[in-house]
TrEMBL record:
PANTHER family: DOMON DOMAIN-CONTAINING PROTEIN Y73F4A.2 (PTHR36516:SF3), PROTEIN CBG04168-RELATED (PTHR36516). Residues 324-344 are annotated as: Disordered. CDD domains: DOMON_DOH. Residues 29-146 form the DOMON domain. Coiled coil: none annotated. Keywords: Signal. InterPro entries: DOH_DOMON, DOMON_domain. SMART domains: DoH. The lineage of its organism: Eukaryota, Metazoa, Ecdysozoa, Nematoda, Chromadorea. This is DOMON domain-containing protein.
Length: 344
């Protein structure tokens, strides 16, 4: 048993670097790009399907307005098939000021016919003559290209592709963190229990196991806004549920127990009830990713119900919190027939 847990511990730890090496990507008919952050360095791999001679393409960063005030990485092809990488700035539309020295590092360049593949890195934080940083939320813009004449970049032709300001470092970190939390708890449950139940659907990810007269539950809602509530209810009668409820306010998570109906809102239990309290292991909220994760230990004798018996569990999407009061949940909960003893 000790050796088994030791192996699980090694596997548990080995998930951390893999979670943090997650890569984001976008693709269209003309270009594709993927990127990841590691050790505060941003690495971007860019591909252009048809970069012909004396043409340029770029990746721009900034919130405008429009094409104004953008930081750019520019890739150009000469008539001798040489590939040059520049950085620059667009103080206004149709004008590019090219830096004397590029502040990105080119790791790899490959030109096969007219298909370009290039990989560059830059610091995630402030860099270049304008100390431009990518550690905050900005739009990323792919400009497939324009012409180069007498060493100058002419106006781009054709459409451009906006990647709205969600693919920044904090977004990437929170996506990785939320995925890592789910992965680590799933692995933990797999290690300590021969069989673990799970539910993964409709914006929810949950794992649970039965042991020592309690249920260890990992509950994740992957689409919940700040100042909203969510939760899980127990019972076959949708109008007579007991449950555990999570409130996200000021980007913090609080947990309460009580009773509710299909659409709620819940009525919370008062202190001093004869039900054993739940134990909270973890409460996390990632505002950039709108993801909430919690790990709680629920006694099988809960709010006058025996959770050891087979019954429906109901995942409640969300309702608003207005002036501190929980409002009705408009969407019907997702349900699953659960028999905790079968997960032992």
């Amino acid at each position: 048993m000790k050796m088994f847990l030791f192996i699980c511990f090694i596997l548990f730890c080995s998930t951390i670097p893999s979670a943090y090496s997650s890569t984001c990507d976008v693709k269209n008919e003309e270009t594709s790009m993927n990127w990841h952050v590691e050790n505060n360095q941003l690495e971007i791999h860019f591909e252009h399907n048809n970069l012909t001679e004396n043409r340029w393409a770029s990746i721009a960063f900034g919130n405008g307005p429009g094409m104004n005030g953008l930081e750019s990485i520019i890739f150009s092809r000469g008539d001798d098939n040489s590939i040059t990488t520049n950085t620059g700035f667009t103080p206004k539309k149709k004008k590019v000021e090219v830096d004397d020295v590029s502040y990105v590092t080119v790791k790899n360049v490959e030109l096969n016919g007219d298909k370009l593949k290039v990989t560059v890195t830059r610091p995630l934080g402030p860099a270049g003559p304008r100390n431009f940083s990518l550690d905050q939320c900005v739009n990323w813009i792919i400009v497939p290209g324009g012409s180069v004449k007498d060493g100058k970049f002419k106006k781009h032709h054709g459409r451009i592709y906006f990647i709205k300001g969600t693919f920044h470092s904090k977004r990437l970190e929170t996506k990785m963190m939320s995925k890592m939390v789910a992965l680590l708890f799933a692995l933990y449950f797999a290690c300590v229990s021969a069989k673990t139940c799970k539910y993964d659907s409709s914006g929810f990810q949950s794992h649970w196991r039965f042991a020592n007269n309690s249920i260890m539950l990992q509950f994740m809602n992957t689409d919940i806004k700040n100042n909203h509530w969510t939760g899980i209810g127990f019972g076959d009668d949708k109008n007579n549920l007991v449950g555990v409820f999570f409130m996200v306010s000021n980007n913090q998570v609080a947990v309460r127990t009580g009773a509710t109906t299909e659409h709620g809102p819940p009525t919370f239990s008062q202190n001093g009830t004869n039900s054993a309290p739940i134990q909270t292991q973890s409460l996390l909220y990632f505002p950039e990713d709108k993801t909430m994760s919690a790990v709680v230990q629920i006694p099988v004798q809960f709010q006058g119900r025996n959770l050891q018996s087979c019954q429906k569990w109901r995942w409640i999407k969300s309702g608003k919190i207005e002036n501190g009061q929980l409002t009705r949940n408009d969407k019907s909960p997702k349900d699953k027939k659960v028999c905790p003893m079968e997960c032992n």
